[in-house]
Amino acid sequence: MVTAVAVTGVVSGSGGEGETVFVPVAPCRLVDTRPNVPEKEPRNVGPRNTPIGGTPGVFTAWDSGDVNSTCVIPSSATAISTNTTIVNPTAAGYLSLFPADKPWPGTSNLNFAAGQRATPNAVTTPLSPSGAFKVLNAAGTVDVIIDVVGYYQPSTSIGATGPQGEPGPKGDTGANGPVDGSACSAGGIAGTVASGFDDDTGLFYVQCDRNLLA
Fold first, then answer.
1. For residue 146, what are the β-bridge partners?
2. Rounded to the nearest 5°, which phi and psi values hold at 49?
3. Which one of 61, 111, 138, 208 is most buried, counting C-beta atoms within 10 A?
4. What is the pLDDT along the chain (214 residues), one digit of tens a residue?
5. DSSP one-letter string for 80-133
6. Model pTM greater than 0.90?
């Protein structure tokens, strides 16, 4: 069963900000830039089968985008949560994911060395108003695999709140507090309870006035 968790302040690619909900999905492959290898199981997913070089790759997360992906991301999604993996980097560099309609934000999501083994990282990227995002590679070429584990959408896009549940059982009643004039003891000397508001602090107090002999 799919559940939604409320999250506040997730920024959409269009620059808006407001309450959104995270919707987890069964992990699905949205992008795999590696080419298919003859006589082996097809592995390419998405609009390209070449590594990403100096020009950022552009990908669409929504259902209408990459037709050979099994991901089902609605057009209400403003961001996606992914497990992004680099494969076969030819130079030391970094990867950055960001909305397709925005300039590179100057940040990196995954750093790597030349020839580094396949390395994943959790990456959340906002989407453009058309559901697209860019993948920038800083140096050389690198293949990229992007698996989606969930997406964010405005809280207004989810269904109505369900009926309120039955109230829980009533808790136990605590012991009664002291009553003015009742017996008490302070420092081994008997006295009576007194309470009221302190004129200086405005705080309510309860104290034991000891019955001291003159």
1. 31, 84
2. -125, 35
3. 61
4. 455 554 545 445 544 567 889 999 999 999 999 998 876 777 889 888 999 998 999 999 998 555 678 899 999 999 999 999 999 999 999 999 999 999 999 999 999 999 999 999 999 999 999 999 999 999 999 999 999 999 999 987 666 677 888 888 888 887 777 777 788 877 777 878 787 778 878 787 777 877 755 4
5. EEEEEEEE--SSSEEEEEEETTS---S--SEEE-TTPPPEEEEEEEE--TTSEE
6. no
